[in-house]
């Protein structure tokens, strides 16, 4: 399949481009005045009336100081004038919204993570209409200045339900200490990245943009046609991280297995905390590999000495292997059919174990895809929360060494629900039917959902259409 020609100036930037920035601020809004919202949206599309311009995927010669993107919920699109009949053409889970009980249960937003416990009004999905996200490259002053301009523009137009900041941590790490933003899919036709692409298969454009062929040869479309090209969906997530709890789990696993704590940290993730994958650095962390090499690996290989079908090097249930099985056998289609692009940043100050505190910290941002149902929800609900998606597979040496289906248990240590009464993680060992495996149990959840919104990023063409549609309601 040849790469399509994409009009980058019609695509909102965050879909196809990662913004390398130090600061971000997300506004969750409820529309109060539809005609006024039409005027505001028009100004943001054109960058007029003193407002910042919505950033597109077209790369500029001079990198701007800030970036801005905008998305609507199902309720927000209805507010702007789309009919019920038109909205029924959208992704089924998008129509229901993140606060829907069946949606929340499907992706593990239960217990402390249930919508009823979400912050600042996000528990009421009906009042959430749109999200505006502002990223500032390296200046907090720029973030504050543009935020003040936006807040003034919202007056009489929309109510701010939530304003939530994000901030990069040193060495591009998350609060659990791992280097972040390493593995992103290479999308056919997307703008070239800063580094050489990894050796993983390119993913069809239609997995991330409506109107193009996806991995099964189909095309995701919606009504009206003005929204059916160069648009995308996303799950906006606020994920609070319990650093002390996670560190305690690593220490407990280390005691049970006899491994060093840093090796345990690498095993449950699939990468060392500096980003090196276990597949390429199996015995020790080693100096960090060049960025373009961090994803050049697979799990299943014909030669026994390099094969890791059984997860003896990188556990089958590790975080990165669950979220991208690469060429390992999984039930249903292969991993390219369920890839997502993640645009998330940490929030909160760095945790200091010598001076622990109860401050809020975690990750906030977007999980972008062209089908919430088939990508974000499939990945989260199936691969992260079950252990039965792995196909029966033996290593090149045959059955005495074991079978992959016996070398995974429980849910993802990071994103699973992990009730202490039934949680489990497997450290695989050679042996028939997992006879020599080490299973650790009884651990709890260390990432709690504090808010979620299913949203739709219209193309620039689509945003103009919505602005004109809303204006007609005046």
Element layout with pairings:
Elements: H1 13-16, E1 23-31, H2 34-46, E2 66-72, H3 74-80, H4 84-87, H5 92-96, H6 101-106, E3 130-136, H7 140-154, E4 158-167, E5 232-241, H8 243-257, H9 261-269, H10 319-323, E6 341-347, E7 362-369, H11 372-383, E8 424-427, E9 438-441, E10 447-457, H12 460-471
Antiparallel strand pairs: 1-3, 1-4, 2-3, 5-7, 5-10, 6-7, 8-9
Low-confidence residue ranges: none
Give the tally of structural domains.
2
Radius of gyration: 22 Å
Distance between the termini: 46 Å
Strand content: 15-25%
Instruction: Note the overall shape.
Output: globular
Count of alpha and pi helical runs: 12
Read across the widest sheet, the strand sequence of neighbours is 2-3-1-4
Total strand segments: 10
Oligomeric state of the chains present here: single chain
Helix percentage range: 10-25%
Mean pLDDT over the residues: 95
Assign the structural class, choosing from mainly alpha, mainly beta, alpha/beta, alpha+beta, or little secondary structure: alpha+beta
Largest sheet descriptor: 4 strands, antiparallel
Helix and strand string, N-terminal first?
A: HEHEHHHHEHEEHHHEEHEEEH
Concise summary:
The chain is an alpha+beta fold. It is 23% helix and 16% strand.
Describe, in plain words, how this protein is organized in 3D:
The structure is a single chain. 23% of the residues lie in helices and 16% in strands. By secondary structure, the chain is α+β, with helices and mostly antiparallel strands. A four-stranded antiparallel beta sheet has the order 2-3-1-4. α2 (34-46) packs antiparallel against α12 (460-471). It is globular, with a radius of gyration of 22 Å. The N and C termini lie far apart (46 Å). The mean pLDDT is 95.
């Amino acid at each position: 399949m040849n790469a399509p020609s994409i009009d980058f100036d019609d695509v909102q930037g965050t879909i196809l481009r990662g913004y390398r920035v130090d600061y971000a601020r997300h506004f969750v809004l409820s529309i109060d005045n539809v005609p006024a919202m039409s005027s505001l949206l028009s100004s943001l599309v054109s960058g007029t009336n003193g407002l910042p311009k919505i950033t597109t995927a077209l790369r500029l010669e001079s990198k701007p100081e800030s970036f801005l993107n905008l998305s609507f919920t199902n309720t927000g699109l209805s507010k702007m004038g789309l009919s019920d009949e038109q909205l029924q053409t959208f992704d089924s889970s998008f129509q229901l919204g993140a606060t829907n009980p069946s949606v929340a249960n499907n992706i593990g937003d239960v217990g402390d993570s249930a919508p009823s416990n979400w912050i600042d009004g996000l528990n009421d999905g009906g009042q959430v209409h749109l999200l505006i996200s502002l990223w500032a490259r390296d200046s907090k002053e720029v973030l504050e200045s543009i935020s003040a301009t936006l807040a003034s523009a919202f007056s009489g137009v929309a109510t701010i339900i939530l304003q939530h900041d994000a901030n990069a941590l040193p060495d591009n790490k998350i609060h659990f200490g791992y280097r972040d933003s390493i593995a992103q899919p290479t999308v056919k036709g997307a703008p070239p990245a800063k580094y050489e692409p990894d050796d993983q298969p390119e993913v069809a454009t239609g997995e991330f943009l409506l109107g193009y062929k996806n991995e099964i040869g189909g095309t995701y479309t919606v009504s009206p046609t003005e929204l059916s090209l160069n648009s995308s969906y996303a799950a906006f997530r606020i994920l609070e991280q319990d650093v002390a709890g996670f560190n305690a789990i690593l220490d407990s696993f280390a005691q049970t297995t006899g491994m060093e704590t840093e090796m345990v940290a690498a095993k449950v993730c699939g990468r060392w905390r500096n980003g090196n994958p276990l597949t390429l650095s199996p015995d020790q962390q080693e100096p960090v590999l060049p960025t373009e090499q961090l994803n050049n690996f697979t799990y299943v290989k014909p030669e026994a000495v390099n094969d890791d079908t059984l997860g003896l090097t990188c556990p089958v249930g590790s975080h990165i292997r669950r979220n991208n099985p690469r060429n390992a056998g999984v039930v249903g289609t292969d991993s390219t059919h369920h890839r997502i692009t993640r645009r998330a940043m940490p929030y909160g100050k760095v945790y200091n174990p010598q001076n622990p505190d109860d401050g809020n910290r975690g990750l906030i941002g977007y999980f972008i895809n062209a089908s919430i149902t088939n990508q974000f929800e499939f990945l989260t609900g199936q691969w992260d929360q079950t252990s039965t998606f792995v196909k029966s597979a033996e290593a090149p040496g045959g059955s005495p060494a074991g079978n992959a289906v016996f070398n995974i248990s429980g849910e993802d240590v990071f994103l699973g629900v992990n009730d202490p009464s039934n949680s489990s993680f497997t450290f695989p060992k050679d042996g028939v039917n997992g006879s020599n495996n080490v299973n650790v149990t009884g651990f709890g959840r260390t990432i709690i959902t504090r808010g979620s919104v299913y949203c739709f990023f219209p193309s620039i063409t689509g945003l103009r259409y919505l602005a004109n549609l809303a204006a007609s309601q005046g």
